[in-house]
Amino acid sequence: MGKLHKRRKGYSDEELDEEEANYEDEEDGEEDEDDEIEEDEDYDEEEERRAYRHRRRIRNQIIVYLVIFFVAVGIAGGGIAVGRKAASFVRQKKQAAEEAKRLEEAAEEELPEEEMVIDTPEPVEEEPEEEDILGELAQSYYSEMSIEDKVAGLFMVTPEAITGVKTATQAGDGTQEALNQYAVGGLIYFSQNILDKDQITTMLANTASMSNYPVFLAVDEEGGDVSRVANSKVEVTKVDDMAAIGAAGDASQASAAGSTIGSYLNEIGFNVDFAPVADVAGEGSALGNRSFGSDPQMVGEMVANAVGGIEGAGVSACLKHFPGLGSTSEDTHDGRVEITKSVEEMRTSDFVPFSAGIEAGADFVMVSHATAPTLDEDNVPSSLSKKVITDTLRGELGFEGVVITDALDMTAITDYYTPEEAAVMALEAGADMLLMPEDFEKAYNAVLAAVQDGTISEERINESLDRIYRVKCAGKLEN
After folding, report:
1. What is the 3-state secondary structure (H, E, C) of 341-357?
2. In the prediction, which pLDDT does 44 show?
3. Identified catalytic residue from 241, 350, 376, 406
4. Cα–Cα nearest to 190, from 156, 236, 214
């Protein structure tokens, strides 16, 4: 109501001025209330987004805690079965976490536009990098080991070497006591250990259940003459030698051979096959029919397919014998062997199949005892040479898996080095596992002493154990 109208009603000028001021104050108050409502809405919107992000972080933390909890349960339970369940659970949780993340991102995209806009946006939080679940599971094993168990975990030996029996054909109390004393990382079996399918299957299953940690159970099963299982009384589909497969020129045959071998080994209980041979055969090669042939590219294709077949059946494949024995006519079982090729010749020939096998995903590479003066001018056996293992195999070829020596009881080693010297030198060179030392206890005690006096750091031991347990935890032990 204006002043003129009110003046006609009899209001004085002072009363009119006072009433108008009150009216303006009321309008200002209403405007303040509107501002406060808008600020409250903005605040509520911001609080809602904060609460949403908080709930998302809580869900992610719960997933991580569940993973850690079940890994701890796996460790406490011990044994292969628990390790398998832990690895399977972790994989399931990882998939669940990825699915939850996908759904959350989709939900965020569907939020109304007004809810996504705020007056003063907070700094964007970067998504954390994907967790190394396999690495964490591997570390959960070796991080809790005693130094004695860590050192033992670097050895792969025959069952006779730790039990003291002449010929091991079963795993009983003696095996249990031996594994309790020496928690070796793996055991390798030969023809004398294999009587029939039921016997070897039971022996391997019992051994796995007796070990406090996941254990490699290995065999030489190349096909042809070097087939410990197929050439025993165990009835399996026999595979021809690699030379015959290479001569056929059909890489799918190498894949089928690897799959056949891997399948029956997995069924019996083996989880590591020391095959395929990745050497390029030269004229008069000591390897005979064990190599796919003399053409590097063809051999590389065959090796890659064989690796795929073996690993696809759930068994770890091992390329051998780096840097390549194909050009030698001597045998490291019988004495010193020298590779006379230049580095460039090896790069265009011998390294080709190894690179192909590494690219195909081979878990292991076995390093031979042959000396290669052009790689290491000190003429140290390749299995004990840092220039061969660390500089060439890891540095140049990029292999990140498990490096294992050839059998350390061969005369190419025993004629020149004690068991103690060979074991320490191999680890210093970069090897992860020591296969069949001439005297296991001497080699073990020497490595243990080297770690205790600082000659070999515990960090160096952990590096090898990390590679070993990544393979063990990646599903290769599921039978």
Report:
1. CCHHHHHHCCHHHHHHH
2. 55
3. 406
4. 156
Instruction: Name the pairing type of β-strands 226-227 and 221-223.
Output: antiparallel
406 annotated active-site:
yes
Contacts of 400 (CB under 8 A, 6+ apart): 394, 467
Question: What pTM value is reported for the model?
Answer: 0.74
333 is catalytic: yes
State pLDDT tens for residues 259-307.
999 999 999 999 999 999 999 999 889 899 999 999 999 999 999 999 9
The SS3 of residue 157 is strand
Residue among 377, 224, 376, 247 at smallest CA distance from 302: 247
DSSP per residue, 220-258: -EEETTEETTTTTTS-------HHHHHHHT-HHHHHHHH
Is 277 strand, coil or helix? strand
Q: Name all contacts of 411-414 with Cβ < 8 Å and 24+ positions apart.
A: 411/332, 411/333, 411/334, 411/335, 412/332, 412/333, 412/334, 412/335, 412/336, 412/337, 412/369, 412/370, 412/381, 413/369, 413/381, 413/383, 413/384, 413/438, 414/438
Give CA–CA dist 223/229, Å, rounded.
10
Full set of structural domains in the chain with CATH: 14-131 (no CATH), 144-472 (3.20.20.300)
Q: Percentages helix, strand, coil for the chain, rounded to the nearest 5?
A: 55, 10, 35
